[in-house]
Design brief:
102 residues; two-stranded antiparallel ribbon; 4 strands
């Protein structure tokens, strides 16, 4: 999902991944809904960017994207590493639609 600079954040957006400081301490957990106060706090802590849940709808239907993925992997899907990659892409594409409630 998108990684946005703090200047692009808007209240109501939700974090896809936790925000951590350089030593690995969690500043805000995954799923936190951002508000003006939290965005200001992140700026004061000099956080450059954060991962937020997607706010764009995918451009094409899920079935179309999965069919295209099948076509691209058809010749090599019996190879173990390629099958793993295909599964990872399938999960990612499906997650895009799940995040949007499609």
């Amino acid at each position: 999902m998108p990684k946005l600079y703090l200047s692009e954040l808007k209240p109501g957006m939700r974090l896809l991944k936790p925000v951590t400081n350089p030593s690995g301490m969690t500043l805000l957990p995954e799923g936190t809904e951002l508000n003006e106060e939290l965005i200001d706090r992140l700026q004061r802590l000099e956080v450059e960017s954060v991962h937020v849940r997607g706010n764009r709808r995918p451009d094409r239907p899920l079935e179309e994207l999965l069919a295209e993925l099948d076509a691209r992997f058809r010749k090599t899907e019996t190879e173990p590493h390629t099958a793993l990659l295909k599964r990872i892409f399938q999960e990612h594409i499906t997650d895009l639609y799940t995040d949007h409630g499609l």
